[in-house]
Amino acid sequence: MNESFVAAARDTVKAAAMRRRSSLALVLSALTLAGCAQRPVAGVDMLTMLAKARAHQTPAQQRAAMVADIRADIRSNDPAADTPALARALAAIGTIPREDFVDARGRAAAYVDLPQDIGHGQTISDPYVVAVMTAALDLPADRSAHVLDIGTGSGYQAAVLATVAARVALVEIVAPLARMAAARLRRMGYATVTVRAGDGFLGWPEQAPFDGIVVAASATAVPQPLVDQLKVGGRIVMPIGPSDTSTQLLRMTKRADGTLDRCPLGPALFVPFTGGRVPPFAARALTDRSIPLCFRAPIVGVL
Fold first, then answer.
1. Which of 7, 59, 172, 271 is the most exposed place for a label (fewest CB within 10 A)?
2. Is the pTM for the entire model greater than 0.90?
């Protein structure tokens, strides 16, 4: 690993210890300082370094500590974001063994709150972002919702959703990942999750309508099929922006006339939406900052 990367990461971790911030911001800071790629993913060396602080704990203890840190980080960004829906999302994350959803090389660092590479050019999102996206759906507390999960990769987001919803339909465009996610979720007992390999742009019409839709890939606009498959009053949570480095994680609620009421949760970097129907990103463009925030302050991508 590049020494400047390690030094930048270590310095950023040290600074973060003095003031709480989201894990996404921590990664962005480290990689920006090191002059690394657009869509940051923690390498094995960096993950190992960060995992050492909790190496003496059991996976369950590490998971509980991570959940507590996520909640504290979100509250530090805006206490209003600590909603009942967030509590349910974090309770779900607290029961799910993330080590079963990451690459074998990253298992020891499964509870370092960072995204990881899962192969095929895809990533597993950091638990902080998974918690925020799940909470942003504001699903009913009675677990009656039907949710569509686009681009879940290894199936971790789907597992979290399955814990707070009645049914989850999962669409993953990378067929090997879809097959592995289906087998993993079946083996782990998530019987309410249905998996399909296909283009997430099209959603899953046969499973619609949905109470909520989570999309773990960025695009210039929300695919219309997803809007059509969402119930009135339902929410889509998806990173949207003019370029793949200028996206915001948006919470969008469907109005009776079919339009979307939008608010940003903060800046975010995701792998780009793939498929032949997605409008291309601009080479360079600025994020639209005119949309009022969901909360008083951003709760993702906070530096």
1. 7
2. no
Amino acid residing at 109: A
Q: Is 29 a catalytic residue?
A: no
**128, part of any domain:** yes
Tokens of residue 234, six digits = 């339902």
Start-to-end Cα distance in the chain: 24
Q: What's the pLDDT tens digit per position in 167-176? A: 999 999 999 9
Contact 142, 257 (CB under 8 A): no
Q: What is the CATH number of the domain that holds 227?
A: 3.40.50.150
Lowest mean pLDDT among 41-50, 144-153, 232-241: 41-50
Number of domains in the chain: 1
**Of the candidates 195, 189, 206, which has an alpha carbon nearest to the alpha carbon of residue 172?**
195
List Cα–Cα distances, 145 to 4, 210, 226, 253, in angstroms.
46, 8, 16, 15
Of the candidates 125, 218, 243, 246, the residue annotated as catalytic is 125
